[in-house]
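Researcher: Next entry in the queue.
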Amino acid sequence: MRRAVITAAAACAVVTTTALALPASAVPVKPQEPGTTSEYVVLYKEGASLEQARAAVRAAGGTIVRENTDVGVATVRTTNARFKALAARQSALDGAAANRVIGKAPKIPKAPAVGKGAEKVTGAHGPVHVKKPGKGDEPLADLQWDMKQINATAKGAHKTEQGDRRVLVGILDTGVDGNHPDIKPNFNRELSRNFTTDIPYDANGEEVDGPCEDEPDKSCNDPADVDENEHGTHVASTIASPRNGLGIAGVAPKVSLVNIRVGQDSGYFFLQPTVDGLTYAAKIGVDVVNMSYYIDPWAWNCPANPADSPEDQAEQRTVIKAAQRALNFAHRHGVTLVAAAGNEMVDYTKNITDTGSPNFASEPGEQPRERTVTPECVSMPSEGENVIPVSATGISGRKSYYSSFGKGYVAVAAPGGDKVDTADGKPDDARGIWAAYPEAIARARGELNPDGTPNTPRVVRSCKGGTCAYYQSIQGTSMASPHAAGVAALIVSRYGKPDKRRGGLTLAPATVERILRGTAKPQPCPTPSTVEYVWYRLENGQWVKYTSEQTCEGGKSGNGFFGNGVIDALGAVKG
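Model: Structure for this entry, 575 residues:
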């Protein structure tokens, strides 16, 4: 998955199936400059006492600034350039992973980017037309081919089950615009939290989130009802936009949304916020979480990849262990874990080539490099235990061209959009997924006319009684995952029992997954099983052709493209 939160499927994959890995010695890394303060996520050894672990951190030259005792993870700051190596020698610690550099003088900043990760594909099929809604439909229901594909419509699942307000869905993402008119009615402001602080620059002085003073709110610490990226708002809307006569309806239009922000404005998702977000979700009684991202800086974490230095191998082992502890904690506390399968167009069960890791410079001079990734390497959280990975489908029902896959990896498939699922392979915004879009971002990007009407075909507006809201068309497995999370929320609403300890409803995650998989509509591999995807992108005024060959393995009820099948909201709740 891309660091830009899996929204835009790239024109050409950054991950391919054939290439040679560079040895670690080929990657020059400058030593940490004296006086530079670095931040690490440290994993305590299971069985070690808190006193032993804290003493070990001090012995390695670190100072604990935040601690998650539920899973044994701490954020540590240090000026010691040898901290990782020293921490590895401590018997009470199980590893350390670089988090970010603090206090390093930045280079001259570039202009800040607003909402990185958005779909940038240029449409070729003109304006999007919306037909008059049918009885009981929301105004933009005609655009929601995705909801028709999974029977999450007024005449489908919503006739039986629209969700229960006591069911909480956690949006682990870049934030949620809690004031968007088509999210606000279902937004739980009281429980929402922000576990991140935006990062102006990386260790090389390159801009990440940009200067704090250039943020819309002039701060790197955003409120828990803000999304300055766009991604989390789109995800939340797909799950639970209400039936209120405005815009669209989500899969589960009556459940409650909790913003658990773990991603930066720039689309980076680091280990500590993920661990803290999952722990928090478990402790407040969240029923389902959606995770449409991978944990940076490694697209895949390899415990013993010869292309990586011993320190990098140890760091990746720490990411795997720490993330899995948090996933286990959430799962044990009744949280159903849903994740996007990735946008790299590759089979996760085969050897592939990663050219984008590490994608964040936590040490001066650090750059992405090419390396071979084997199936033993794991992308977190999607390949974590007890997680439900979701691949993406297009309007025709085919697996989306960008969606990663793999037999035994993908659990189910869901609509994620495929703008080039067209007769000519040129993009059509109508074939993306439409969901809520923060007005502030639309205005900052110049996508609205002075009168408030959109000036781009990938944005539409819906108004009711003087209140207007905006929606955009994007694509990605990021968009597929919330459809499955929404169906999971319907399942808890339909079959859950009162949670006597924390209130609300509860249903064992294993039961939710069984129903989700068991009611999915089986979809066989295409014939022939190797598909050549063909699409075009507009580059410098010219349409450029791209192709990708992808092979589906497995039978009708279990294969690499669709898992157990395409989710079915009606089938999941009608029993």
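Model: The chain has eleven helices and 23 strands.
Researcher: Noted, moving on.
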